[in-house]
Amino acid sequence: MLPLIRTVFPAAFRQLLLLFLGMLLPIGVPGLLAQQQGAEHRPGGEVNLRLPDLNQGDFLGFTGHQILLTGIVVCILGLLFGLMSYSHVKKLPVHRSMAEISELIYETCKAYMVQQGKLLVVLFGFIGAVIFVYFVLTGLEIPKILIILVFSIIGMAGSYGVAWFGIRINTLANSRTAFAALRGQAWPVSEIPLRSGMSVGMMLISVELLFMLAILLFIPADVAGACFLGFAIGESLGAAALRIAGGIFTKIADIGSDLMKVVFKIKEDDARNPGVIADCTGDNAGDSVGPTADGFETYGVTGVALISFIVLAVADTSIQAQLLVWIFLMRVMMVLASGFSYLISNGVSRSRYGSGTRFNFEAPLTQLVWLTSIVSVVLTYLLSYVFIPNIGGNPDLWWQLSTVISCGTLAGAIIPEFVKVFTSTESGHVREVVTSSREGGASLNILSGFVAGNFSAYWLGITIMGLMAIAYGVSTLGVGELMKAPAIFAFGLVAFGFLGMGPVTIAVDSYGPVTDNAQSIYELSLIEQVPGVRQDIKRDYGFDLNFETAKELLEENDGAGNTFKATAKPVLIGTAVVGATTMIFSIIMALTHGLTGGMENLSILHPPFLLGLITGGAVIYWFTGASTQAVTTGAYRAVEFIKANIRLEGVTKASVEDSRRVVEICTQYAQKGMFNIFLGVFFSTLAFAFIEPFFFIGYLISIAMFGLFQAIFMANAGGAWDNAKKIVETELKMKGTELHAASVVGDTVGDPFKDTSSVAMNPVIKFTTLFGLLAVELGVYLSAGGSSTLSRVLAVAFFLASLFFVHRSFYGMRIEAEPQRAESRRPVAVKA
């Protein structure tokens, strides 16, 4: 572990940290402890919340506590569904040549995940120490601090654990999908990755919901707030680290592998290319591990934000209890709705496509998303009418709340439809990218992708605004009689609804890495060259091989996977942005004394607020550049190694040693890039939180707004470039041509756009908001107690630390090519 720490934290930074802590503790502790005697509000965010007693209310003759116990049963059923699907996928037939490749991919994924686990321990040691010092300074009791730390570990372990499950089932499903394609029938090629995706989705949401229900139902009310806070911090930490590192890893490998097609004129997933195994590992690290951890965290943090809002904004504890029971009933219902909708949709698709050799692979996925959304909306209204027909004496509130949450549920289906307009292989924008490349080459290919991304940001922005506007309009009809700032509650419910049908959202997102890997496994297995393979498969599995059809099916299905990977990204980033609004509300309540004073500071007429808005935009663009730089340098080293070591004559496949070395390069640069970015974001958050509270609120709003449009633009531009290449390869069948070379260049530009920078903004926004709210409360606490000088000193110290990592994210990561090293078998290390 010590060598790892030395790698992660350079000597200069370790000395800075020790100096800072040595300065902070003797100055800060005595003053803070003295201030606590007369303080009315102690910083700590959700730790100060006291949840209402759920053993009240009348829900069909049951108390809130009793009715939510049924949610535990539903979570267990969801876990069983996930495990049964896993078992089913594992038992599917597969040829040994394909199984060997998928196991090799899994072994490299395991090595990556073990390394990431070690890094998470290091990160948590650092973050945990900061949390401990923070709450000691605020005078929180040691047992409560330990509870926060324990639940932080549980939250982080949850993100890490579901990511493990995701890569395990995906690396079983990929080889089974490749083998199923050999039958020449399309349905199994679609059904297997969707089944594995539903397994991941049901497992993820059931585990998350089980944890949250356990805290709500079995933890004492005066401690539950600390548990929710710790849990949210832990899962945010895990998701941010895994999402950033996974996004960097996967695109280093993808670019390194793809560029070999242009340089050496070799085919897609050529087994002689040592970068292909790393690319397959990256599909799982970036497109499975990252989204799974991200979805786990998003589902949890959005729930914690709503719980905080209800307790802060609703005065009547009986209404608090009814609202809490209602939102968790909605989540329980949507788990059931997702499971039943999948079973119905799967049966319909099987009867419709089961015997066909061709169909649109996007059709069953679209059908599932819309069916789940409609079923969820209908059940939302039905259950709301049954369980909260007259909440707070308002007989209309049940349909008003149902309408608001349904805006988010429908967004989970509407947003993917808009995304497909810009990223699908049938999209006019994607075909424009192909057309422009015919005469304009890579230059016009890239420009057309920029056009698609920019247009998508407009239309998706208008869509999200429209849904939020409907929610706002409904919130003015009577919700305000029960709570303060009803519009904020409405926005939080929209975010809540975004991931209401979480199992299906995760399932269609997880579809992509399986289809991508399946295509690679087919090529890497060299099954067409296995002696006697036709006779063996006819004897053992009872069908005749169809190699050409199998390859075409796998390539077409990969295009559908690309499209639906793209559809999930705006849903997650939209949830982060809309949900951040609700999280920011808690600090606004404290700063404005319950919205009774100081509201004029939430305006551009208050200079710190305006300066915060400007600063947030600056950080988003640095984050985009830093994450892309890590990919660029890592890909350079990967290409350098592959070009020096690829063997095209006399061998049928690359050596395992060379393939593992490419994986090591990807891991090395992913980790270094992630730490620079994560610590840059972390120290920036602390610095801006201590400057001035309304500066920080402006900053949070800004990173959410800038991040939303930057992420949508980059994700959909990248999706357009990706599927433009897919059209050239599958529909036009022009591999190896100048048009193909141009589309590959465009795709490599889009790789860090769609799978690194854009997707990592979601957990970064939520981690910044969650952790920053604690810091800004401490800053206010210090200033109110006469220690404003200390607050300013801390802001400067943290800002200098952030500048260190911002500087290092480029100058410590840039490419330093030396001619004499160009032929080296081992790449040059990143500058420390």
What order do the helices and strands come in, and which of them pair?
Layout lengths: L1 H7 L2 H25 L28 H28 L4 H42 L4 H40 L5 H32 L2 H44 L10 H39 L3 H37 L8 H26 L9 H27 L4 H48 L10 H13 L3 H23 L8 H9 L5 H45 L15 H39 L10 H36 L1 H39 L6 H47 L3 H24 L21
Helix pairs in contact: 2-21, 3-6, 3-9, 4-5, 4-7, 4-8, 4-18, 5-6, 5-7, 5-8, 5-14, 5-16, 6-8, 6-9, 6-14, 7-8, 7-17, 7-18, 7-20, 8-13, 8-14, 8-16, 8-18, 8-20, 9-10, 10-11, 11-12, 11-13, 11-16, 12-13, 12-19, 12-20, 13-16, 14-16, 16-19, 16-20, 17-18, 17-19, 17-20, 18-19, ...
Radius of gyration: 26 Å
Instruction: Supply the number of helical segments.
Output: 21
SSE string, helix = H, strand = E? HHHHHHHHHHHHHHHHHHHHH
Range of strand content: under 5%
Q: Cα distance, first to last residue?
A: 18 Å
Query: Which consecutive residue ranges, at least 5 long each, have pLDDT under 50?
Result: 1-41, 818-832
Kindly report the average pLDDT value: 86
Counting DSSP E segments of at least 2 residues, the number of strands comes to 0
Protein structure class: mainly alpha
Biggest beta sheet summary: none
How would the global form be characterised?
globular
